[in-house]
Amino acid sequence: MERLIPKIKEIAQKINSTEEKRKRLAGFLKNMGPDFGLIHGLEPDPLKDLKVVGVDGGIAKKSLHGFDCMLVRAAGACFHYKQGKIEKVDYLPSRIPLPKPEIIEALSDMDWAYFTSISRQRLEVKTALDCIDKFKPDFLLMDGSIVPHYSDKPSRSSAVYENYKELISDCKKLYMGAKDNDVCLLGVIEDSRGNSFCRMIREDILAKVKHNLVPELEGILEKTRDTNLLFWVLEKGEKSKTFPYSKKPEEHPVLRDFGDLGKNIFSFYLKTAKFDRPIKVDFLRGKDENRIASVLLAISGHHSGYGLPAPLIEADNVAKLSENEINNFYSHILSFAGNTPSLMRLRREQRPF
Q1: Which of 138, 275, 310, 335 is deepest in the core (most CB within 10 A)?
Q2: Among the four given CATH numbers 3.40.50, 3.30.2170, 1.20.1260, 3.40.630, the one describing domain 43-192+254-326
Q3: Are 90 and 138 in contact (CB under 8 A)?
Q4: Which residue has the higher pLDDT, 341 or 148?
């Protein structure tokens, strides 16, 4: 490692130099903020009488010689807020839900990856619909986007393409279920790697600005993710300008599968904690985005370095699965089925040296 120190120092200097450029760009954007409506300050919602549900899922999986197996579960945590405080928390299906076991054979590695992700998302969506029916919440927060990621979309020739189509159908049902029950459906992305906001700044804002720094700023934006920039732009309690999830939903690999519904999904960033990165929020157009941000601000950021909403933190605590659980699952299968060739572990997991 000692021989790498000079190269490590060079990398660190490059990172610091790039970050300083982003800070300068952030200062430039802050000055332009009032002219273009880039930043909106907010006050936390008083949470006088509000029900907020967080939904998250967990998955643990193991590949064997002849089979792939997984455990998956999802949970909803409904926070009842009264006069700014949590009065009680209800759970669905329970505080300690049983995971759903799956055993699959004859899938390629790629299709197995698609299948596990789609299975988790479908269970989360089903749980969200059940939470709407049982709790009638004001807000329902999904962990992650309310739109499946394009990397989770298999090709039409894939063995699990029908599973993807069922996921899209489930998501449509969730959108309509939220609308019919007047529930504000939100997707909260804690670690967004998107660049839609930076692209909007580059294409819609800087194109209208006459300044000798513009060419340099455009170059920085091309290599910057939204949260890298907005960490410096936003202060706690500020949200970014709202923007479409996609400028061309009819061409987006996933949104186009939603038809006209895909045109109604919008996003913004919100900084809920002083020393944490902003969260990205996806929502269905038609709801008051400032009210949404105000509620999220009130239920998040109780730790200065971690800004995720409390209902989602609790849902994650309930739904997450450990490596021990999938290992125990495998051991129980082995004890009943015997050590058949199909249940042998992969060689990379049982090397004798």
Answers
A1: 310
A2: 3.30.2170
A3: no
A4: 148
